[in-house]
Amino acid sequence: LRVLLIIAAILGIVLLFVGLLAEGLEGWLSLSLALLGVALAVTSPLIIFLKLNKLIKHFDKRLDEERERARALYSEALATVKPLLLLFTDYDTQRLIEKTLPDFSFDDTFNFERLDDLSESFGYSPPTSPDISVIDTLSGTLGTSPFLYESTKKMEMGLETYHGYRTISWTTVERDSNGKMRTVHHTDTLHASVTKPKPYYSTDTRLVFGHNAAPDLMFSRTPEHSDDLSDRALKKKINKGEDKLEDLERKALTDDDPTTNFTKLANSEFEVLLGATNRTNEQQFRLLYTPLAQTETRRLLLDKENFGDDFIFEKRGRLNIISSEHTASMSLDSRTDNYFSHDEKEIRQKFIAYNNSYFKAVYFDIAPLLAIPAYHEPRTPSLEKYVSMHTQNYPTTEYEVLANKLREPSLIPHGCETEVIMKARAVNRYGDVDNAEIISRGFKTIPRTHVETVFGRDGRFHSVPVQWLEYIPIETSCFISIKRVGLSADEFSERAGQNRPSGVVYHGLYATLAEDMKEGSEAIKALI
Known about the structure:
Layout: H1 2-21, H2 27-85, H3 92-100, E1 104-106, H4 112-122, E2 132-142, E3 145-175, E4 181-210, E5 218-221, H5 231-254, H6 268-274, H7 282-288, H8 291-301, E6 311-316, E7 319-324, H9 344-370, H10 396-406, E8 421-430, E9 433-455, E10 461-484, H11 489-496, E11 504-506, E12 509-513, H12 517-527
Antiparallel strand pairs: 1-2, 2-3, 3-4, 4-7, 5-6, 6-7, 8-9, 9-10, 10-12, 11-12
């Protein structure tokens, strides 16, 4: 309304000037316009100042009162559910899985004991590429064998195609149907493109599982979504796959390569569905995939009610790696923020839905391993004992996880316009405090113009500009300190209250910028 009145006042001034200055208008019309202009120019501001402003102030006051009332009600609701929220911990999801599947046991923190076991006994190597950062971990044991969930962020240089357009016009002289000459106007839109490098970022989550069964066997399989096929389409796929298996077997028997010794199983349907034809040891493959394992794996691959055939399974000797589509972008972070609310009923709904979803994702990641009876066998104890020679308290993997959770501006390179890949390097240890250097890499952009010559329909060449972005690598580094507090994030916040130091608590570890650690450590000592 205020805007309309301001427009009316401006219109009144315009009418006043038109009525007074316009020539050629009749006297009565000029006078009418001038009087109307005066009325609008005077009454509109009066309405705004005398009436409208009072109404606005009144409603602003009412709005502030309602906002304050809403804040009070929200605070009251939070106070009501606070005792319930304090019952939750960051490890509730893992404890529920352990109670449901007793063979599972989760670690609070991915530690050197688990890392050394996976590395020395099963051949696991943490990501070392400067283009891959570990953003979360979840480790433990399944039975007597270790596992590690590993979420990573990866940067890959790809290509981006930029487009530019230019409209040209020209005239020609033509003779019309009557024989007369006429001028014809033409237009044409010219197009040019240029392809330049661009960084692309993706996240992935994989399950790493160590077991001594079939230690010399290597193979891989990729998802083919056989569960989406109709019975007729599935039968057609099996028949076609059987022909390929026979060709592959024939070729392996007739060539001179001793490494190609493929011999298909009697259960050709299972062979086609699994697709692990690149296996390196036929005997151990058969020991692994017994008739029972074949039946259970087939049921899993054709399961239409759950995730079905959506997983990569890679076996590298004693190391088994599962990467599924349903956990590719899943967050391993099970902190209580996932079901925070001011409403008790909503908390219950979120808690049940979140933990059901988490359990389902984890269970069907481990299902391809559970389908194999050999993986249920207890681990053979190793006679070799590994002596830890580490100079820090925690693996650098955990440093990267904490750095990604920290979200400190100083961890981001100045002028960075892309996502960031953080890599950690252990620096030193002072008692129970680890110091690490975090190197963050990203890109800034510089606008560029590429000019391409394009031939137009007017018979001439024209310059078409294409705007594109050049990505310039940039990086920064800073130091963080890590200390074990043995508390969840909520427990830490509750105990600290207003005295909570800066930083982040995750996996029972407290991380902050190194220069803040002294103050933070003293605050932590007071808490624990």
